[in-house]
Amino acid sequence: MDMPQTITADNVLRSEYQKSVANYWNQEKNPVNLLLGQVDGYYHHHYGIGDVDWSVLEAPEGERDDRIIRELHRLEHAQAAFLLDHLGDVKPDDRVMDGGSGRGGTSFMVNERFGCQVDGVSISESQVEFANDQAAQRGVADKVKFHFRNMLDTGFETGAMRSIWTNETTMYVDLFKLFAEFARLLQDGGRYACITGCYNDVTGGRSRAVSQIDTHYICNIHPRSQYFKALAANNLVPITVTDLTPLTIPYWELRAKSSLVTGVEDYFLTAYKEGSFHYLLIVADRILR
What is the dihedral of CA 123, 96, 175, 73, to 10 degrees? Predict the structure, then answer.
């Protein structure tokens, strides 16, 4: 059962920080997201993994940008597909949730693969509107719905979700509060999958490069250990942890050579290569209540 009260910015955005994050994403129209999404209609807000086709850099001047954009999009689509591979045994009559759903790209991929009901949750009203418009255009608005809600307190029914995923969104929230809500929402044995950047506790606190990433995205990157502490505190047991750092570096190296540079590329490459920042897939199951 969904929460009965009217959904307004006042009861979704619980702090000045959340308001600033929502404002950032409400105004965001970055070509690195929009142009890539226009390639095939899947608008993602995350990075890519996999081997790069470096021949795109040798394309004729009039084709080079388009080929780079298509290659970057192929890599980010591959990242989303890799995440889908870890959502567990999702059936068509299951319900799943995308925590921090952006413009909806991964949610549509999940519905297409599994045929299930998908609920996306975001604190960006403009992105929710965009994603719901995409659902209508695709003819799946009855199965894929996006909600202006806070993923720390969704209001959805306890035990409603077979699987939940987050894709580069956990750095905006308190992990203990987030995983408490996810543990409430997941069925017994339900699956949580996460791809995230986190700083490396072994090297100490945030490196300069990681701090610059935080500043760029007004986020708060967590230490690696915090994920596992928060999962354990909320009856979520990790079953798979994969270091995707080597697989994402080529994406950043290609993006740094594109016309879509945002100024953050060098920070990512420095942080990854010096070992102060990791890009992880974490998969965990909800144990019995």
Answer: -70
Distance CA 187, CA 158 (A): 8
Q: Which residues contact 65 (CB under 8 A, 6 or more apart)?
A: 258, 259
Mean per-residue pLDDT, 42-56: 96
pLDDT at 130: 96
Query: Backbone phi, then psi, for 171, in 5-degree steps?
Result: -75, 0
Q: Using CA atoms, how far apart are residues 263 and 220, in angstroms rounded to an integer?
A: 18
Which residues lie below 8 Å from residue 131, measured CB to CB, with a gap of 6+? 43, 101, 102, 103, 104, 107, 120, 122, 146
Question: Does the predicted TM-score (pTM) go above 0.85?
Answer: yes
Signed CA dihedral, 162, 76, 29, 140: sign only: negative
Q: What are the residues facing 195 on neighbouring strands?
A: 167, 281
Task: Give per-residue pLDDT as tens, 99-137.
Answer: 999 999 999 999 999 999 999 999 999 999 999 999 999
Residue partners of 77: CB distance under 8 A and separation at least 6: 40, 42, 44, 48, 105
- Cα–Cα distance, 273 to 249 (Å, whole number): 8
Q: Is 171:55 a contact under the CB 8 Å cutoff?
A: no
The SS3 of residue 76 is helix
If you average pLDDT over residues 8-27, what whole number do you get?
90
